[in-house]
Amino acid sequence: QIYGKCIASANAPLATAEHAIRRYLQLGVPPEKLIMGTPWYGYMYPCLNAGPQDDICQLELVPWRGVNCSDTAGSEMTFMRIMNLFDRGVCPPPVANATSCKVSTEMRFDASTQSPYFNFVADSQVYQVWFDNAASSQLKYEAARRIGIRGVGPFTL
């Protein structure tokens, strides 16, 4: 679910991950039994009313579990597909039949979520892709160590 404005954002913000771990610890779960899951995938969101260089990607309202907006407005992408798109312009599903996919921004880093993202255009539709890379994952690994839990483990699609 997306609370607040219906805009594209990180699927695993650092502050949210830290908060979740601290809640489990407050509930009495021993730290040696906690492993922080770190995503090795991301989301591709079709933007409404956005230009190729825009930071804000407004999403279609897609209600889910009692909220008006959710990440179901986007499509999950494996890390490999994200990198193939960014590095080589390879169109990912569901836009694989587009005539071209052109990355329209540099890799950006959102300070509030500690997550990377970028924009691309496929057949005149602007998309924004949010994911975790080595830099954002490192921040999560450091948080797990600082909090004192057992470790981290990647999860994929």
Label this structure with key terms.
157 residues; alpha+beta; two-stranded parallel sheet
Low-confidence stretches: none
Give the biggest beta sheet.
Answer: 6 strands, antiparallel
The count of DSSP E runs of length 2 or more, i.e. the number of strands, is 8
Shape: globular
Q: What is the helix tally?
A: 3
The structural class is alpha+beta
Which bin fits the share of residues in helices?
Answer: 10-25%
Order of helices and strands: HEEEHEEEEHE
**What is the beta-strand fraction?**
25-35%
- What is the average per-residue confidence, as pLDDT, rounded to a whole number? 93
Radius of gyration: 17 Å
Termini separation:
18 Å
Helices, strands, pairings?
Blueprint: H1 14-26, E1 35-39, E2 41-46, E3 75-78, H2 79-88, E4 101-103, E5 108-110, E6 115-122, E7 125-131, H3 134-147, E8 151-155
Parallel strand pairs: 1-8
Antiparallel strand pairs: 2-3, 2-7, 4-6, 5-6, 6-7
Helix pairs in contact: 1-3
Characterize the structure shown.
There is one protein chain. The protein is of the alpha+beta class. 24% of the residues lie in helices and 26% in strands. The chain is built from three helices and eight strands. Strands 2, 3, 4, 5, 6 and 7 form a six-stranded antiparallel beta sheet that branches. The chain has a two-stranded parallel sheet with strand order 1-8. Helix 1 packs parallel to helix 3 (134-147). The mean pLDDT is 93.
